[in-house]
Write a structure and sequence with these properties.
By secondary structure, the chain is of the alpha/beta class. Helices cover 30% and strands 12% of the residues.
């Protein structure tokens, strides 16, 4: 894979610029979703105009990297730039945004998750950044760790939890130990929590089944099928 450098190609705010840092300040990688259906160029245009982050407009695309729907990786800012992607943690983190609108806690209007090309690109980019910045798996986060429950959505959040606990399938890059959404629904249905069709789509019925399963088994009720939820689900559906 390759990273397309568009730092200067993407338009900038007429007057505003990011503050700078040394790379040894970086202690986290934080993954986001767009919560929209645009692309890196469109999000950049939104960010440099008046927006929800700043009524004056932001200097540039508010993340360091964007991953397009076809898996293309775009670098929009230098790693030394302090961008505005996670309030309170910008100085110490690198921000990655996946283009798209995905289902997540408290937000049920999006698609079930990103494309496989995006997940492959995310795996590659996170691995590359870890090595470049000397970070551990436990220093990879989602925006949901810092107060944005819907971001980056159920599928990516589960991948992050697996990655943080060293159980990600590095060959395929996604969805281990629960293999996919169909497998998840099948296991929940076997235990009587899910009564819908096995369609591989994480809609409201699937989400409610996850919440109830977590509640009944003394797990954190967050709707994220992370390592502990996966382990318990697998134990009960052997």
């Amino acid at each position: 894979m390759e990273i397309r450098n568009k730092i200067q190609l993407l338009p900038w705010h007429p007057t505003r610029r990011w503050s700078a840092r040394s790379l040894d300040k970086i202690k986290k990688i934080i993954v986001h979703q767009e919560l929209g259906e645009s692309n890196v160029e469109g999000v950049n245009q939104y960010h440099i105009g008046p927006n929800h982050v700043s009524p004056r407009g932001c200097p540039h695309f508010c993340y360091h990297f964007g991953i397009e729907k076809d898996g293309s990786i775009v670098q929009a800012n230098e790693l030394s730039s302090i961008t505005w992607h996670t309030k309170g943690y910008n100085t110490e983190s690198v921000g990655i945004m996946l283009v798209g609108n995905f289902n997540g806690t408290g937000y049920a209007l999006g698609k079930e998750g990103p494309s496989q090309q995006q997940m492959d690109a995310l795996q590659w980019l996170v691995d590359w950044l870890q090595k470049a910045l000397n970070l551990s798996n436990q220093e990879v986060y989602g925006h949901y760790h810092f107060g944005k429950p819907a971001c980056p959505g159920y599928v990516v959040s589960r991948w992050i939890e697996n990655y943080r606990n060293d159980i990600v399938n590095r060959g395929e890059g996604i969805l281990k130990p629960i293999t996919d959404e169909t497998d998840l629904q099948t296991r929940l249905k076997k235990l009587g929590y899910y009564i819908g069709n096995i369609d591989g789509i994480v809609g409201m019925q699937t989400k409610q089944a996850i919440f109830q399963f977590q509640k009944n088994n003394g797990l954190t009720v967050d709707g994220i099928v992370g390592p502990q939820t996966s382990k318990k689900l697998m134990e009960l559906t052997k």
